[in-house]
Predict the structure.
Amino acid sequence: MGEAKVHYNYLDKQFKIGGPLVKQILEDIEGLVKTGQFTLGPQVAEFEKEFAKICGVKYAIGINSGTDALILILRALGIGLGDEVITQPNSFIATANAIRFVGAKPVFVDVTDDYMINHLQIEKAVTSKTKAILPVHLTGNPAGIVCASEIAKRRNLFLIEDACQAIDSSVNGKMAGSWGIAGAFSLHPLKNLNVWGDGGMVTTDDGELAMKITLMRNHGLETRDDCVMVAGNCRLHTIQAVIGLRLITDVPRISSSRIMNATMYSKYLADVDGVKLPPRFANVRQVYHTFVIQVKKRDELQKFLERNGVEVKVHYPIPIHLQKPYLEMGYKKGDFPDCEKQSENIISLPIHQYLSASQIMKVINLIRKFYGAKTV
C-alpha cells in the first residue's frame, strides 16, 4: 500500500526535499538583510516582472495578500456602496468578503459540476446595480471564464478574476489572470506558487489601473513625500519577493506534477461506484491547487482514509451564503441547491507536487477498498 503516511500539507517537504533551494533562499534573505531594503526593494519589481510573464500580461503588482488584491481591484474600479458584484457561493470566504469590504453587495449564482460559476444563471442576476462579474477559478480550473467573459462584454460589466488558486492555468492557451480587466492571485504558503507567509498579486493589461493600484498599495504615495490619494498599506514585503523569485522558476514543474497526479486519480477512480470525478476539458489547463471529487458517505470515507494514514480536507464544507454574515443578508438554505449538494459530498485528496506514485496509489486503493472495488 505504499508509504506509511500521506500528508495533505506539503510545506515540510519543501524544506526537506528542496534543501539546496532553501539554502539559496536563506542566502538571498541574508543578502537582503545586509541592504536593509525591506520595503519595496528592487526584488519586488523583479518578481512582478516574472509573474507578469507567467500570466501573459503587461503588469503585475505585488500585494500583501490575495484578499487585498481583490479589494484593491474593486476599489480601483470605483465599485462600492450600492453596487452589486456577481460571484459564486462555493469559494473561500475571502471572495465575498472582499466585495462586502468595499461596501458592495455580492450576488451569488449557483455552480456547475466542475465547481465553476453557472453561466446560464449569470445574466438573470444582472440588474441596474451590477458593476462586475467575479468568477472564481476554484481548484485551479479557469473553465468558467470564457462564458463569463462573453456576458461581461455584452452587458458592459467589469470582469474580475479570482485566480487565487490558479497560477499557470489557462483556457485555449490564454492564461488565468489575463481574461478580465484584472486578476487577483494568492501566494499563501499552500498555493502552487507560495511565499513564506501571506502575499498576493494583481495582474492587468490596463496601464492606468496598474498605476492606480500601485499607488493604492502604498498610502497613495507618488513619491516618498507626495500623496495623491487616500490609501492604506498593502505592499508585498521585499523578503517575500526574494522567496518568490526563487520559487517562481519551479512553477512549470509544480503544475506538471499536479496534473500528473490528477491524471492518476482520474484513471484509477473512474470506475468506482460512489465516486464522481470532476469533468476535464481538452482546451483547459487545470493546475489542481486542489483535487476535489464528490463521493457517497463522505464523512465516513474521510475517517477511513485518515485512520489509514491519508490526510484529506474538505474545500469548503459550508457555502458562503450559509455563513453567518450572509445569512444576515437574507440568503438561506436552498438558494443554491447544486452548491449545497456539492458541499455535502466533496472531498479534497492529496495532490501536491511532492507525492510519490506509490502514495497516490495508496490513496486510490484505499478509496477503491472503501467502496468495494478491486484494488489495482
In short: The chain has two domains: 14-249, 251-370. Residues 28 and 315 are 35 Å apart (CA to CA).
